[in-house]
Amino acid sequence: MNWDIFIGRFHPLLVHLPIGIFILGYLFEVLLRFGFKKLIGSRKTIVLTYSLGFFFGLLAALTGWLLSFSNDYGLDSLSNHKNMGFVALVVMLLVIIYQIKGAKTNAKLKLSGSTLAIILISITGHLGGNLTHGDSYLTKYGPNFFKSNSNYLIGDFTDANTDSLYIYPSIIKPILLNKCFACHNSKDYQGGLNLDNFGNLFKEANHSTPIVAGDPDKSELLRRLSLPKDDEKFMPPREDGFNYTDIQVLRYWIENGADSLTKFNSETMSKELIALLNRDYGLDFRVKPYYEKVKSDSLDVDLFREVQNSKFRIGYLGENNYLLDVEFKGDSITKEQIRVLNKVSNQITFLKLSSSKLSTDLIKEMNEFPHLTRVDLSKNSLDSTTTTSFLLEHPHLESINLNNNDIDKAALEQILELDNLLRVYIWNTRITEEEKSSLSENYSNVDIISEFKFDKVTKAKSVFEQQNEE
């Protein structure tokens, strides 16, 4: 049995007594100083109260000293609390001696000494609270100007590029420094764990290896953080633990190699983790279409109007997305209109040239559209060779409408090789149903649409018709 630890654990019970009693004595002294002598009686009442507070202060100091041998507290924080407690006790004793020995005329000076003792007691209590609950306990929910600047804060991810976000320095390291560093540093590495160095996470500690890259189940740090809070091995013992999101981030990081340069990858992330990061950190790892990943500047106003005046409907994809959705609204597109279209080819992602009488010669005049993802060339009687040549220049195409064009199976096979293609419309082309079925089997990742089918809607029956049937 560890008697020192057993007795030491009475410290939290005893520590509040000297604080409360000494404050009561201070209240008596203030009342005496301002003329309430009949209420207080004499200065002996104050001396007796201070002496009682000092006695319990000694008991609290003794139990605190015994409790310090438990190795459950950070060395720096513990040292600050112990030193300030010792200073407070000495000042309390001097206050009592001066209350007894000092001249009666020095009531003002006596009150000043007592005020100093109260301040030191308050500071000692605050440091004790930090030791038990963490440095941010008092200020955690306060206004920003009141919060401690020493906290290691996780960055603002509002404008973060999720493709270049390193997991360890961005999320895991700040949390470890906030919640674990006080007890696991170069001066006080409890359990043999020193978080001053990244490499120490992978070295054998007293109990086990904190992080085993690629194996969350063998990583002692993750195991301790995931225990129930009332478990004696739960970490951190006196701080709010990692929340569920942070534990899942830590698990993902370990599973994916636990390197300092490991990044998030939406293809290997669970839907739950993607949702948690979006909710708690504002990080959006949802799989995005190509046009949401591209950054572009807005067009010059005069150029925008020139495109509009050339019988094109033109618009931006969104408030902060300046890629263009363009549709020809005239009856027959001309070479001059193609020339105008080419001026904005670098920003067009949706292009609709349906029923525009686009000819083989005109399509050859069109520039490459580097960000083109959707194109509608339907109802133009284009031939296979020219159309295929144009489409294969655009690797980001996701949707192609070739309805009512002179497209054959050989041309479509080449088009279906586009890596990002999701759907293609081929109604009223030279491709037969048999050829379409064969291609659908070979290119199952692409939806090949050759006709529009509507489910038959059953005619609604009145209540009387239903009753007659019954």
Question: Could you characterize the architecture of this molecule?
Answer:
This protein has 470 residues and is mostly helical. Helix content is 45%, strand content 6%. It is built from 19 helices and 7 strands. The longest helix is centred in the N-terminal third of the chain and has 27 residues, at 75-101. The model is unreliable at 148-153 (pLDDT under 50).
Short description:
It contains 19 helices and seven strands. By secondary structure, it is mainly alpha-helical.
Terminal CA distance:
84 Å
Count the E strands. Answer: 7
SS strand fraction: 5-15%
Mean pLDDT: 84
Helix content: 40-55%
- Whole-angstrom Rg: 38 Å
Chart the SSEs and their pairings:
Layout: H1 3-8, H2 11-14, H3 16-33, H4 37-40, H5 43-67, H6 75-101, H7 107-133, H8 167-179, H9 220-225, H10 244-255, H11 271-281, H12 290-293, H13 301-308, E1 312-316, E2 324-328, H14 335-343, E3 348-352, H15 360-365, E4 374-376, H16 384-391, E5 399-401, H17 409-415, E6 423-425, H18 433-442, E7 447-449, H19 463-469
Parallel strand pairs: 2-3, 3-4, 4-5, 5-6, 6-7
Antiparallel strand pairs: 1-2
Helix pairs in contact: 3-5, 3-7, 5-6, 6-7, 8-10, 16-17
